[in-house]
Request: fold
Amino acid sequence: MVLNLALVGMSVVLNFWNRAFYNALQDKDWQGFVDLLFFYRVDKEGFMPGFCVVAGFFIVVSVYRTYLNQWLRIRWRRWMTERLLASWLAERAYYRISLENAGDAKGIGTDNPDQRIAEDLSNFVTESLALSLDLLSNVVTLASFLGILWGLSGSMTFMGYDIPGYMVWVALVYSVLGTWVTHLVGRPLAALNFRQQRVEADFRFALVRLRENVEGIALHGGETEEHRGLEDRFAAVVANWWQIMRRTKLLNALIAGYNQVAIIFPIVVAAPRYFSGAMALGDLTQTADAFGNVQGAMSWFVGAYSSLASWRATVERLATFERAIIAARRAHGELAMADHTEFGLEGATLALPGGQTLAESATLAFHRGEWTVVTGRSGSGKSTLFRALAGIWPFGAGTVHRGGGTALFLPQRPYLPLGTLRHALVYPMRVDTVSDDDVRAALEAVGLGQLAPRLDEEDAWAQRLSGGEQQRLAIGRALLVKPDWLFLDEATASLDPASEAALYGLLRARLPNATVISIAHNPAVAAFHQRHLELDRPSDAPGVFRDAVIAAR
Reply:
């Protein structure tokens, strides 16, 4: 801010230097010309530094102004990113938003959170800093040059009235007119920029999805359909861009014409006084320069309109995203979590986001030490039961009991974080909390010993490993975590029956004190459990949990 104000101060100095220099030229004053160019000059009007001195100071200020601007920008962005990430991840707001707004066609507050955090935040900081400093400079410029222009303008008689400082009033009328017309022409740009950011993010997300699912697309021969889908998304980008182009063309035509007229306008207005001999050539150039600064400062809105429209769209995307986070964190749903010795449900109703009921007034308990297999037809709500027990499912009513001790939930498609294979295996624990021997032993136990030399290699492991290998890795994670409660949602379904049975035998041997609850359909897997819980749900009615005892293996 100080350096920006210093630049304004130098522009004031240059305004007076400009008058002295052109007067020296008009008077053919060689010594004054040399002094004002290279050194300094002292006369009846006071001290005037030479151009080289002012230019040198200007270079230093300009360099450090940019450096400090970049320094502030990255600190500001880091602070905002940390704040927004913490808010998004707190209380599983990110998960609730994805559930409640997955089908949000308008994209208000929830679409492409990755872009809002990575790109919109960066744009917000850059644009806010640029606009605020530019506005500050213009306000100070206006205050600095207003008095100069008032003193240089003299007075003018109009319709019998004597108007002092008439060029100030001319600048004001010119700026107000330009600002009003600019707003009329450029007003739709904010909405267009908001939509452009969204369609750009949708197109980029589709490309990322293609990259992450290359094998499935290749196996289906879906290149043509993917191409069509990408073209449709990109067509939305192009169509909205054309609208921005047309509106920007009108706005730029207005601004360019406005700025071009502003170059000659003050000279034309001040010319009568110059030709009457009331001012010298230097006074005329100083007046024109002062008028340009005053009019430019008053017209800040005109020049910054496109940037303001883009900034407003960015602010709106961040604001709606933050509101969605706050709403998600406040909306805990009607499923109450209660600490208990065992996991279970008490008078609980499980529902889908659309309101469809999966199970109604259900009461059940999973007992410590008792391995339970949960079955039911596809879509009946088995995975939703696990989500409710994990405390992440907000849709429903009643009470969910959460058992004491540690719990680990393994879904059918394991999550492998970015980073090394070691990181993927020990997740969600920290890498440095598990010994190398334990990591290698777990990898060997689940049949992935051949990957041990690559433990510290970074790769896209979610794409590098097959579905079965990923599930083996997840079982290895369970061996390391050693949970008191282990929930397996078809966590071995990608393996052959023999491998499934081997891994369940491994869990029983290595985790003798763990309580295992599995969703599975393989009879060989069911044989490892003492209890069979079936979710019997007709297609048009809530389901019912039916208990049965099966022989233990």
